[in-house]
Amino acid sequence: MDVNTGMKLLRRISTAAALLALTAGTALAQDYKEAPILAQEVAAGKLPPVTERLPKEPLVVKPFESVGQYGGTWRLTMASASDISSLVRTIGYENFTRWETWQPGMEQKDIVPGVVMNVAKSVDINTDGTEYTFKLREGMKWSDGQPYTADDVMFWYEDVYSNTEVMPTKPTWSVRGGKPLVVEKIDDYTVKFKFAAPNGLLLQALATPANDPEPNVPTAYPKHYLEKFHAKYNENADAEAKASGGQNWVSNFNAKADAWRNPDLPRLNPWIVSSGIGQGNGSQVVAKRNPYYFKVDTEGNQLPYMDQSTIDIISDPQVTLLKAANGDFDMVDSYIGFVTTPENKGTFFDNQERGNYDFYEVLPNRANLMIVSLNLTNKNPVKREIFGNRVFREALSTAINRDEIIEVVWLGQGLPYQTVERPESPLFDEEMATQFTKFDPVLANKMLDEAGFAKKDGNGIRLGPDGKPIQFTIDISVLRQPWIDTAELIKKYWRNVGIDLLINTTDTTALNQRVESNDHDAAVWSASGGADTLFDPKYFLPSSWASFYATAWGQWYAKDSNAEEPPEVVKKQMALYDELFATVDVGKRLDLMKQVMQIAKEQFYTIGIMQPTTDYGIINKQLRNVPKTLLASTEYTHPGAANPEQFYFAQK
Amino acid sequence: MAAFIARRVLYMLVTLFAISVMTFIIIQLPPGDFVTSMVAQLNLQGTTVDAGAMAVMRERYGLDDPMYVQYWKWMSGILLRGDFGYSLEWRRPVADLLWNRLGLTFVLALCSLLFIWAVSLPIGIYTAVRRNTVGDYVATFFGVIGLAIPNFLFALVLMYVAFRYFGAGIGGLFSPEYETAPWSLGKVADLLMHLIIPTIVLGLHGTAALIRLLRANLLDELNKPYVVTARAYGLSERRLLLKYPVRIALNPFVSTVGWVLPTLVSGATITAVVLNLPMTGPLLLQALISQDMYLAGSFIMMLSALTVIGTLLSDLLLAWLDPRIRYT
């Protein structure tokens, strides 16, 4: 039986069940409607009626195209047991706020797309942005039918967030003016978040997906279920944890609060995991509809439309590719399944008919797919002097034939840009994108001569200030073949202007360790843009060790080990970035970020090779209410921001 | 005999201890630990983890302890409580993960073992007895090809053919509708259908190897005087063949039984990854990549224990089968 006939059958059964439920007279006069499989359970007395399950004021979701039909299974895939982000972004995106569904042509006033209310019904913000009063939804329930109230938020705040054993570190968004967040309960459905200094981007931070297995957000900790595992409420919690094979109560508590591995944990999500990661034979995660989900469509149908979701755990990309081309998944793109690469496009085109899928466009928030970072904080003083010479970096950038690289390595799927925001973003700067990208070896040679590297040795390699030939090593992770292929080309271009590059391919973990201890000359990585830039701007200012071009300055900013104080202009840039988070005014915020970008442009920290054009995804032809163009990034939740609860399968 | 077994068991314990120490050291040799490899993966997705959070994770997982403390924690768990430790990546007890996958791994390994024997025994005997005939050449040709093709490549080719020409579901041991369904006749049938390709792929190499071995051994035996004697006594050709030379030529089948046990658990790792089979091999590979040391370590310990036990068993079997070995 193939999946489609299965689906048809399922739908026929469910229609019959709905009719049965109607004729049995259990469906009273009510405004809200529900899925047939839930109606059955109501009829059998296993569930209260839908009006009692929904909050007093459910969130009304406007369907993207049309009101949908109930039923079907959303088939997805994830890459490994640690790939929790794939679950959060698809079936588990329920925070206080959420990103609005960004569409091309929408006017964007802020640095990032807009934010709408979600679990929280509304928010009042005081003028300086230090107090946020959230209203919750009266009558809202966890997936086991127990009420979700301010007490659950306080349980999160007092016993998870503030408990240093459970959560030893505080997330960045919650600390302002050096002090952690304070939460007060006003009444059963009102909580107030107070900060020591203005928090301009709280609603945006709350809308980002909780990708950590320990989410530490106010919507993930049901007090009535979790308190028995917490030492504060149960003095035997530690002994009980050890008796059941855990190490101590903390790890047991975190394991019980892990929505992706513990099917017993009540949640707020549209689908609730019934078989978690590593359960069964460990090859699939299954999630079933949440009968208490708090959203309805414009006609009062309780969401989600789809009955369940299955997520296959497949570690080999070739298997994912074949299964995807066979139509075994309903949605695959560069963020779900990760196999829609330029080189696989042909396979997907050839099998479109049999796989029964259409293509859609993904605007990836990838600022640059290949960034060459010369370590400006190099431990070797000679190399530091050479790399620190901006003209040297500009000349090397000019010596690279980006058009050839993009054609040969990336099959033409990119633009020859520096590290820069994407054209959709209000932060895009054409001049920043194209500076020093025009291939001109003659000019590059001239620039290097004038920058003080005119002398050459017998092999034609330029001499550094110490009189030795300029030779350095670039560390590249074996993770992505195009990086290595491109590096081979760059080696050739740079040899032509008298610079000797050595290529060292390495495992990602080893690379990160080298960089963290500031032992690298140069390294390659890629950068995200958009919302990711806002919360993790590492390629536009040295904000952490992961800023490969200035590890030690980044570590200074992050108060990490091997820190080194950066020059004034960089410190000014950091101060501007900090100010951004304390700014409530949208226009002012954008202006601050533009200043940060301006400094990045002038400093010319990195050599960008290419910005990918658009990615593509494949989608089951029967799946509806999915926009044809989707914005994606790590922090701008994809596809969660497009409201997967209102996706549905059309009958043929 | 009892003394022999006791002595062997003692050796086994020493061997296993040495293996456990080596395993633990080797797993920790590559740079970094589970936390760095997890951070590397997050960094790839664009999330940077700060140093404080990394330190907290290390402390929580006990990765800061000196290596002998970590080793003692692990070993004492296994010896005193039968607790194989906790997988850092899957966040589940290692034993759960292993048992969940062992059942199907055993089924598949058993199928391919039966397949190997069922195919290679008759062909091996045939090619030896009918040496240098067309049948021998054809069997030899395919035997050598079977030896030469790497399993995973063969798996890829079969998968492509199944995908391109039959539209068959590829990879995995169950169709999506049976994946989480309870056991039923339909599910068993579905499993058997999915077992065909893996069985052939996993069995191919072994089959080819055994055909060659059996043929060579049997050729040595066929011209020995005892065969001539038996023939002179007027034994039927079939009885003569099976009763004497084949029995001796079977030695390699038995002495390799010891290696079958560990392959039962490790599966053919790469093949299982390629075919997306819920076997134990891919789990071990992933554990090694992500430096999930307790999972990987316990795994290798189990493999080693099975190898050692298997070797003992095959020695005993061999002594039973071949009287010559008993007296040396």
Task: Describe this structure as you would to a colleague.
The complex is a heterodimer of chains A (652) and B (328). Chain A is an alpha+beta fold and 652 residues long. In chain A, 32% of the residues lie in helices and 18% in strands. In chain A, strand 7 (175-176) and strand 8 (179-180) form a beta hairpin. The longest helix of chain A is centred in the first third of the chain and has 21 residues, at 3-23. Chain A is globular and about 90 Å long. Chain A starts with a helix and ends with a strand. Residues 1-29 of chain A have low confidence and may be disordered. Chain B is 77% helix and 1% strand. Chain B has a two-stranded antiparallel sheet. In chain B, strand 1 and strand 2 (92-93) form a beta hairpin. In chain B, helix 1 runs antiparallel to helix 16 (293-321) and helix 7 packs across helix 8 (185-222). Chains A and B meet through helix 9, helix 10, helix 19 and strand 21 of A and helix 2, helix 3, strand 1, strand 2 and helix 5 of B.
* Oligomeric state of shown chains: heterodimer
Q: Using only CA atoms, what is the Rg of chain A?
A: 27 Å
Helix percentage of chain B: over 70%
The CATH homology group name of the largest domain in chain A: Dipeptide-binding Protein, Domain 3
Could you give a short account of the major beta sheet of chain B? 2 strands, antiparallel
Query: How many distinct folded domains of chain A?
Result: 3
Please give the radius of gyration of chain B in angstroms.
24 Å
Q: What is the straight-line distance between the termini of chain B? A: 13 Å
The CATH class of the largest domain in chain B turns out to be Mainly Alpha
Shape of chain B: globular
Describe the largest sheet of chain A. 5 strands, mixed
Provide the structure class of chain B. Answer: mainly alpha
**Biggest sheet of chain A: strands side by side, in what order?**
20-19-21-17-22
Mean pLDDT of chain B: 80
CATH superfamily of the largest domain in chain B: MetI-like
Estimated helix fraction of chain A: 25-40%
Name the largest protein-protein interface in this structure: A-B, 68 and 60 residues
